[in-house]
């Protein structure tokens, strides 16, 4: 979607072009960014002469806005998404791509995603790469390319494909250093700064180490046969720490397999037979081993026993080296009917280290946002209460001051205090604020004044959260009660809101995680 949000611009105009069948098209872009908005509006204008096109520009923000965005995506045949050095960091652009991907699985391959690179030749960062790397895309370098781009989009809408396929893509992208792990792209860096967003680069000078880092890295380097749990709400740096742990393990001579449960299809998460098999296939794919799941799935065993034999008798034996199995976004198994069995299986792998030499070769690292008891009912079968549990917290005043120094000290102590009053040490928002101020894109006074606005410095981030609440009336009601009355009677609702990074507990009261969230959501939740 975009960085804006507009009143529906649902336009279908005929231009006498014969019996061209109309398609429904959703245009996703980052508003108030160049060249994103000018190109998106031009494409909207031309395609709108033959098709029904939705582009978001002035629609009032609120829970009804989120409902409208989902409805438009759901009935669209195509999602045209414009990707530039700016928009690849947009949470709403990512959210719209993720939703289109999910809807295509549910609805029989629509909407079809049509990516357009706008003067952008870097490889897509994770998780965009997971959704887009196998999809044909079109490119645009300057306004002279717009007519050609429109012709290519029209052909794709008429049943063709965009011109640049997976085989041609590598030769057209700028070379990047080899890395076996998902990593963020380098953004445009005025004043040698880094635009925040996603996992923080391994080489970044803006990564703030916290006490849990040392524990995780020691587990990855100096120990063997350990289970590490990294726990924190959204956007606390969990994935960034996991990536560093993976790199340390690799440097120590271990093999690493990275799995992101966010990328498992919804249908797979509802089918245990399919899930366990894909789980094993994903491990061998990550390790560049032959996939032997066909052979092991012929065994007359249950899924957990098949996985046990697959990992113990094949993967670990074949590697002949320690293995770190790193699992991100584990919370996506929250609703799976087989979650107790799956996590019980991981616990059994942990326990096997005591009696089996080969299982001592396996390290487990799991990243979660929610409370473990919501994932596993029987604590004796839980992998979340063994090994090292690392809980990440919001930045302390000293850590914010350190980050301010790394940005060239754009804020005085009084300014840091004002920023802390608004953001309460939220890692991502603090980094974004310092980036905008240090790069000259905003002053502190302007940033604080516009902070809770839809088109303000955090608008994309705030709209993303509002979008994620859509369709979850229980969460909306819970957030409303937190804002109005500083309470949340349902423990599960509290943990789900905390998992999303929206609330915190302060003694006996439950509060919005920061003043920014309280100010923004107060007038936008309708119950």
Structure write-up:
This protein has 527 residues and is an alpha/beta fold. It has helices at residues 36-47, 63-74, 91-107, 128-132, 146-157, 169-172, 211-221, 238-251, 266-269, 272-286, 293-296, 303-319, 339-352, 397-406, 413-423, 427-438, 444-450, 459-469, 473-485, 491-499, 515-521; strands at 24-28, 52-55, 78-83, 112-118, 138-140, 227-231, 255-260, 323-328, 362-368, 388-391, 503-506, 509-512. It folds into three domains: 24-172, Flavodoxin domain (Rossmann fold, 3-Layer(aba) Sandwich); 211-391, P-loop containing nucleotide triphosphate hydrolases (Rossmann fold, 3-Layer(aba) Sandwich), CATH 3.40.50.300; 461-521, no CATH class. The strands form three sheets. It has a five-stranded parallel β-sheet with strand order 2-1-3-4-5. Strand 1 (24-28), helix 1 (36-47) and strand 2 form a beta-alpha-beta unit. Helix 2 crosses helix 18 (459-469) and helix 19 (473-485) packs across helix 20. It starts with 23 loop residues before the first strand and ends in a 6-residue tail after the last helix. Residues 1-19 and 175-191 have low confidence and may be disordered.
